[in-house]
Amino acid sequence: MTTISVRNVWKEYDERVVLERINLEIESRAFVALVGPSGCGKTTFLRMLLSEESPTRGEILLDGKPIAGEPTAERGVVFQRYSVFPHLTVLGNVLLALEFEKGGVLARLFGTARRKAVEEARAMLDCVGLAGNEKKYPAQLSGGMQQRLALAQTLIRKPKVLLLDEPFGALDPGIRGDIHALMRRLWNEEELTVVMVTHDLSEAFGLATRVIAFERPRLDPVDGDRYGAVIKDDIEVWPRRIAGQPSPHRDEAKTITAPGRDDPAQDQGQVRDDLALPA
Ligand SMILES: Nc1ncnc2c1ncn2[C@@H]1O[C@H](COP(=O)(O)OP(=O)(O)OP(=O)(O)O)[C@@H](O)[C@H]1O
Q1: Ligand 1 centre from 262 Cα, in Å?
Q2: N or C end of the chain: which has fewer CB within 10 A?
Q3: 98: phi then psi, degrees, rounded to nearest 5
Q4: Nearest CA to ligand 1 atom 5
């Protein structure tokens, strides 16, 4: 169970007010989409949830306790630009995330611990539809596959909160549909509370349980920095989605045949069918 409470949060950079009076209660396992015009502070808000930035005023609580002052494993993040390590293989990328988590000061695992970690990493790659690609390097993967790798890298650390900053913004529409299906499945299967920034309203309503719209309602013609964005709308998506209770009718489970379409191996005739979900 992971709830997020945002209490009267403001964010100012010098004289510039970016966000003001933000109050939000996010229930455990919600999937919240943040939308709003460019520059209204969505990423800034996400970075505060991650502790990459801190509020100028107000507080953010995780399960009723103030969030740690720096990023921690309980909060995982995936950005729009691919954040995987280019010099490591697919398996190496996921393994490194585990080694950072469990490997202590050396960030290395040995013997049985390493064998277990490799098993765990392979299972996670299978889960995101990348089985069979373990030895490849990120440059050999398509954009969609790299984002699935970034998801695997983040999820292997078992975060309670998953923060997504336009993670699918750079992908082609067809591939986006596939990765949306994967995202729905992960949200249903893992114990995750998700907060996602997106510019795409259909993505927001297609994935989230709740859509929060930021907007700057007041403009000072003399001092443009005087007022920040507030929560303009807070919309519960209807019919309701409940984590762990996927609805094939409403969420087109049929699109979960993902891996093939964004896999360059497809072009060489290697069609894969290992990701299809049971009906
Ligand atoms: N470290 C910083 N120092 C000063 N100003 C900043 C800093 N980070 C963000 N800002 C400003 O805060 C405002 C909000 O930026 P932010 O990136 O959060 O908006 P956004 O809604 O995510 O925009 P977009 O949709 O274009 O990504 C912008 O005007 C930006 O210039």
Answers
A1: 31
A2: C
A3: -70, -40
A4: 13
Q: How many CA atoms lie within 13 A of 191 on its CB side?
A: 8
Kindly report, residue by residue over 108-124, the tens digit of the pLDDT: 766 777 888 899 999 99
Ligand 1 proximity of 44 Cβ (cutoff 6 Å): yes
pLDDT at 267: 56
Structure tokens at 93: 């990328």
Position 53: which residue type? Answer: E
- b/e string for 182-192 if b means 16 or more Cβ within 10 A? bbbbbbbebeb
- Rounded average pLDDT over 46-75: 95
> For the chain, which domains are there?
4-84+159-268 (3.40.50.300)
Going by alpha carbons, the residue nearest to atom 26 of ligand 1 is 38
Condensed to tens digits (0 to 9), the pLDDT of residues 194-223 reads 999 999 999 999 999 999 999 998 776 766
Q: Is 211 in the pocket of ligand 1 (CB under 6 A)?
A: no
Question: 236 - beta bridge partners?
Answer: 210
Spacing, Cα 53 to ligand 1 middle (Å): 12
The number of residues in the chain equals 279
140, with CB counted inside 10 A (0-12, 13-18, 19+), is middle
